[in-house]
Write a structure and sequence with these properties.
153 residues, alpha+beta, five-stranded mixed sheet, two-stranded antiparallel ribbon, 7 strands
Length: 153
């Protein structure tokens, strides 16, 4: 089967490409077909914008995304410049006990190179699909916490 593979972040840098077509019958066949050495620990796969197990069979034309591990929290996909103040204002609620945010820093050096900028890539199409499903699941609980979480997205 010919499948379309998408790589993000460090995987894209490692391979030197973001999209490629390969031959694979199952998700487990994808990494070896790429010829990129040892598979990174914690790597996730998505087939047609849904997380998939390694034993999932693939069909001609499927899109397989390889997703490096990330840590979670509430999030929003945007192409606009980020503003911490805007995020806090969006989720502010007088009933909330507090709002936790994270602002990170980066190393000056990484893998023997000087870090001059960061480029964040998102698989926006899949992220939006997953967030819609989460919102739908949470809305069935009817709890105040779920309603607050939906607003945070």
């Amino acid at each position: 089967m010919t499948v379309h593979v998408r790589l993000f972040a460090g995987l894209r840098e490692r391979a030197g490409w973001a999209r490629r077509e390969i031959e694979a019958r199952t998700v487990a066949d994808v990494w070896p077909a790429l010829g990129l050495g040892d598979e990174p620990e914690g790597l996730l796969y998505a087939v047609n914008r849904e997380y998939a197990e390694r034993d999932r069979e693939l069909h001609d034309g499927d899109e397989v995304a390889l997703i490096p591990p990330v840590s979670g929290g509430a999030f929003r996909v945007t192409e606009e410049p980020l503003s911490l103040e805007a995020v806090v204002a969006e989720v502010a609620d007088e009933r909330a006990g507090g709002i936790a945010t994270f602002t990170g820093t980066v190393r000056r050096q990484s893998r023997g190179r000087e870090v001059t900028h960061l480029e964040y890539e998102a698989y926006a199409e899949m992220a939006e699909d997953v967030m819609e499903k989460l919102a739908a699941e949470r809305s069935t609980t009817g709890s105040a916490a779920s309603r607050s979480a939906r607003r945070a997205w």
